[in-house]
Prior knowledge:
Blueprint: H1 8-15, E1 31-33, E2 46-54, E3 64-73, E4 76-84, H2 93-99, H3 103-106, H4 112-123, E5 127-130, H5 133-146, E6 150-152, E7 155-157, H6 158-165, H7 173-179, H8 190-207
Parallel strand pairs: 1-6, 2-5, 5-7
Antiparallel strand pairs: 2-3, 3-4
Amino acid sequence: MATSFPNSIFHQLIHGRSAGQSAPLAIMGGVSGSTFAPSERLSDLPVVIFDFETTGLDVKTARIIEIGAIKFKNQKEIGRFSTLVNPCQKLPPETFGITGIDDAMLADAPPLQNVFYDFHEFMRGCVGVAHNAEFDCNVMLHESARLGMSCHYHVICTLKMARALVNSERKNLDALAAHYNLTFESRHRSIGDILVTAAVLWNMLKEHPELQTLADLNSFQEPMSQL
Length: 227
């Protein structure tokens, strides 16, 4: 069963304003996560496939510039969270070449502290899924810690699954899209990558019907250790 979100002060910290204050507080505080029994079936649980676009690949210094997350129940979409994020710093030149996101697009986007609470609320109580989840989980942990909060989710990595289950020479998202004859709505944008990740996940589960419970998927889980 999913854990609760006990710190109601979390909402007050992020949304509360004192007299004359026009922006939310920078330090949020709080804790969020999800815990399930190994016997629970994935098809019975809410699943959030998530993806971050960032300023770089060093998880200790990278800043989130886009958050995407789609919530599914029994492989049907039931909710979506998507926003650009102003990292409050100039983007490296290579970021536009990879993502198509530039400084002008982020100029009016909210800073992370304005939207990260809502992202965690969207994730809370769900099984997380990401492709190369090690990167996204570590970005989440570092950015959360920077804002004074902690989190611990049950996250399944589709890259780990593909390495064990898919007969393809390469296991990156482009190779898996080609393997399953999938097309990207947009590549290296959060929602576009998530939609392909979802289709890859459903295909792998269809090919391996023995994978039903979280215990069956345990070897593909991404450990999350609070920093």
